[in-house]
Write a structure and sequence with these properties.
274 residues, alpha+beta, Arc Repressor Mutant, subunit A, Beta-Lactamase, two-stranded antiparallel ribbon, 9 helices, 46% helix
Length: 274
């Protein structure tokens, strides 16, 4: 799953790979946007190459450039193309309704994180109030290992794939923030491994406890994670067994819903992989 184009790639393939990487990185700052120099550096491209690709993407409306500060942002064609995925929208609406009801009953906040390669994307975010220190919102894209939901997904992967994800994620983390958080992120992974599901007892943000269970597609692969979070007082370690049961129960319901809406070709029994 190497995201860096190889020198032996055909020119067209290399350009396409670079364009896709630019759009993925752009999505990490969907509202703030990127300066050309910062975006080029984040994608390991020289400014000239990045500018040429971005000019083409802006022309096709896959990327837009904000007039005020000339920063680059995701373009409207991405949204328009997404409208051609009716099953995704049906599942999204159903999941949001189920998570909202569940979060109210649990007196916490709930997220649905979709796996996107080495990263996760926040698909649903609901709750009774903003959790202090929580900086994950609808559309947030980050490396898997930075979230308890991502850790729950990584737990399901074969050893070689999990190692590949971790190597990529660590490289992203070090490039953006340095190595200051590597210790606490490892502590979250180790705690989760001991309990057999995603568990974060203030490991990353003090006073914030979070828990997660993976969602599997019909082929058995984890495509998402259900997360529950709140204060240490509201979700103490003593409730771990209860919380795990709640997560598992709703995760199975969401999996069944996804099997009907995401992984089935309309009008047939044929299934496909995301």
């Amino acid at each position: 799953m190497d995201e860096n184009p190889r020198m032996d790639m055909p020119a067209g393939t290399q350009s396409l790979t670079r364009s896709i990487k630019l759009m993925r990185v752009l999505a990490m700052r969907g509202e703030i946007g990127w300066r050309l120099s910062d975006l080029a550096a984040a994608c390991d491209l020289d400014k000239g190459t990045a500018h040429r690709i971005l000019t083409s993407l802006v022309k096709e409306r896959l990327v837009r450039q904000r007039p005020g500060d000339r920063r680059y942002l995701p373009g409207p064609l991405l949204f328009e193309l997404g409208l051609s995925l009716p099953g995704q929208h049906e599942f999204q609406a159903s999941a949001e309704a189920q998570l909202a009801k569940w979060a109210r009953r649990m007196s916490g906040s709930a997220l649905l994180l979709l796996r996107s390669g080495f990263e996760y994307v926040c698909s649903v975010g609901v709750g009774q109030g903003r959790v202090p220190g929580l900086m994950v919102e609808l559309g947030t894209r980050r490396p898997l290992f930075t979230s308890v939901g991502g850790v729950a997904i990584i737990q399901t992967l074969p050893a070689a794939e999990a190692d590949e994800v971790l190597q990529n994620n660590i490289a992203q983390e070090v490039a953006k923030r340095g190595d200051a958080r590597l210790g606490v992120l490892q502590k979250m992974r180790e705690r989760s491994a001991r309990h057999g599901f995603g568990v974060n007892l203030g490991d990353v943000v003090g006073g914030v406890h979070a828990f997660a269970a993976p969602l599997h597609s019909p082929d058995g692969k984890a495509f998402a994670a259900l997360c529950l979070m709140g204060t240490a007082e509201g979700f103490p370690e003593a409730r771990l067994e209860e919380i795990h049961g709640e997560l598992t129960q709703l995760a199975r319901l969401l999996e069944a819903d996804a099997a009907q809406k995401l992984f089935r070709t309309p009008g047939t029994d044929q299934r496909f992989n995301m």
